[in-house]
């Protein structure tokens, strides 16, 4: 049975556009997933990336076109300039970590609810009320938003170190225990084929 380490940021538009396809692929192949939210800006700094706002205008313009196209292809609502972006990723990331440790809910649904809150629903994912609503929607105890903060902070930092060690440099980034890495929601079909033994 394959295992996937899923490195992502709770503010990543590309992670939002991935939807819950990762979970569908994992279920299809009997693979397991560990969710590893991280500080994407810190990952960029450590791996030679540039934050979106600091990129050349031509790169920013292309990113805007690409995101809009992907959203249309996926058939999902998408706001290119959400009201609460950027915001503090730590609270929502800690909640994901606490939920994974607690179990009992749907992790894919939780991550997508948080991402959707930012990119489609104009909500601030640093707001405890928004985080609690996402936890509830995914079948978790909303009180997890207020628990395990120390463990969350330690795991969040460790996820960043592990991402760098495993070759991740963006989000979403999928690391399979077969030694194969896949970057971006537009590589999920490749991940599917790999798990099927075709790639």
Note down, in words, how this protein is organized.
The chain is globular, with a radius of gyration of 16 Å. Helices cover 51% and strands 10% of the residues. Strands 2-1-3-4 form a four-stranded mixed β-sheet. It contains nine helices and four strands. It starts with a strand and ends with a helix. Helix 2 (21-29) packs parallel to helix 9 (188-195), helix 5 (90-102) packs across helix 8 and helix 6 (107-119) crosses helix 7 (128-137). The chain has one domain (3-195): Glutaredoxin (3-Layer(aba) Sandwich), CATH 3.40.30. It has 199 residues and is of the alpha+beta class.
Mean of the pLDDT scores? 97
What are the low-pLDDT stretches, counting only 5+ consecutive residues below 50?
none
Report the radius of gyration as a whole number of Å.
16 Å
CATH fold title: Glutaredoxin
Strands in their spatial order, largest beta sheet: 2-1-3-4
């Amino acid at each position: 049975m394959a295992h996937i380490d899923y490195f992502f940021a709770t503010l990543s538009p590309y992670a939002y556009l991935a939807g819950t396809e990762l979970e569908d692929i994992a279920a299809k192949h009997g693979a397991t997933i560990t969710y590893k939210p991280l500080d994407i800006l810190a990952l960029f700094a450590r791996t030679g990336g540039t934050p979106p706002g600091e990129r050349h205008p031509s790169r920013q313009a292309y990113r805007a076109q690409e995101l809009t196209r992907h959203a249309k292809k996926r058939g999902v609502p998408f706001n290119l300039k959400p009201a609460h972006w950027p915001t503090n990723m730590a609270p929502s990331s800690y909640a994901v970590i606490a939920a994974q440790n607690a179990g009992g809910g749907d992790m894919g649904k939780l991550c997508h609810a948080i991402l959707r809150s930012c990119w489609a629903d104009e909500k601030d994912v640093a707001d405890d009320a928004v985080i609690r609503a996402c936890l509830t929607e995914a079948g978790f105890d909303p009180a997890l938003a207020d628990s395990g903060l120390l463990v969350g902070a330690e795991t969040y930092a460790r996820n960043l170190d592990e991402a760098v060690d495993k070759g991740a440099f963006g989000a979403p980034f999928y690391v399979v225990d077969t030694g194969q890495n896949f970057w971006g929601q537009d590589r999920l079909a490749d991940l599917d084929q790999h798990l099927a033994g075709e790639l």
